[in-house]
Design brief:
The complex is a heterodimer of chains A (about 110) and B (about 120). Chain A contains one helix and nine strands. Chain A is mainly beta and about 110 residues long. In chain A, strands 1, 3, 4, 7, 8 and 9 form a six-stranded mixed β-sheet that branches. The longest helix of chain A has 4 residues, at about 25-30. Chain A is globular, with a radius of gyration of 13 Å. Chain B is an all-beta fold and about 120 residues long. Chain B contains no helices and eleven strands. Chain B has strands at about 5, 10, 20-25, 35-40, 50-55, 60, 70-75, 80-85, 95-105, 105-115, 115-120. Chain B starts with a strand and ends with a strand. The chains are: A mainly beta (about 110), B mainly beta (about 120). The interface of A and B includes residues 91 and 101 of A.
């Protein structure tokens, strides 16, 4: 069971806006940044959002991130068929001795 | 340009020890704030963070696997090595190494990943 909670699936039709949530706790969200990754089958995760809401160069502005308290969200607007992938959130958990934590992943289907 | 590449055996037997090497370029693990982590992903399942080593040789481990994991670095070779003892079929996964960075009190999740290496545990 993952430390961060994501819905296992999400879906939308082309052009729609979809949001994926990620919830944690005070030990892993307060003070830490949330990152989001996109992963296609058989490939390594790709950084999509860093420091809660920043996009690396090359990531379309259709992708946006936000964080509030112990929750974070990834929003994808103008949904496209090529956005169909798995999405993961991640952060650093300060509890105990400190460790990285990931969400359980959300499979996005473009209908 | 930051790159990371994992290497190691594709197949290990139960009870054996897995040794994986991450060879990286484009940054130095002797630079303040730099870290390298190992992360794994069983087939069809979620990502699981395993271990991290930082520029100051501080080490962090997944609390659930801590007794079986060891991470080390060879700064001169730009390599990080992970060992996982007493391998079991449930450890079958793609193992990734990734760069992470510390800013102040916090360590940020990975910004660069290797392509991953699939390790199968079977007799």
């Amino acid at each position: 069971q993952s430390v961060l909670t994501q819905p296992p699936s999400a879906s939308g039709t082309p052009g729609q806006r979809v949001t994926i949530s990620c919830s944690g706790s005070s030990s892993n969200f307060v003070g830490s940044f949330v990152y989001w990754y996109q992963q296609f089958p058989g490939t390594a995760p790709k950084l999509l959002i860093y420091r809660n809401d920043q996009r690396p160069s090359g990531v379309p502005d259709r992708f946006s991130g936000s964080k509030s308290g112990t929750s974070a969200s990834l929003a994808i607007s103008g949904l496209r068929s090529e956005d169909e992938a798995d999405y993961y959130c991640a952060t650093w958990d300060d509890s105990l001795s400190g460790q990285g934590v990931f969400g359980g992943g959300t499979k996005l289907t473009v209908l | 340009q930051v790159t990371l590449r994992e290497s190691g055996p594709a197949l290990v037997k139960p009870t054996q020890t897995l040794t994986l090497t991450c060879t990286f370029s484009g940054f130095s693990l002797s630079s303040s704030g730099m870290c390298v982590s190992w992360i794994r992903q069983p087939p069809g399942k979620a990502l699981e963070w395993l271990a991290l080593i930082d520029w100051d040789d501080d080490k962090y481990y997944n609390t659930s696997l801590k007794t079986r994991l060891t991470i080390s670095k060879d700064t001169s070779k730009n390599q990080v090595v992970l060992t996982l003892t007493n391998m079991d079929p449930v450890d079958t996964a793609t193992y990734y190494c990734a760069r992470m960075q510390r800013y102040g009190d916090y360590i940020n999740p990975p910004d660069y990943w290797g392509q991953g290496t699939l390790v199968t545990v079977s007799s």
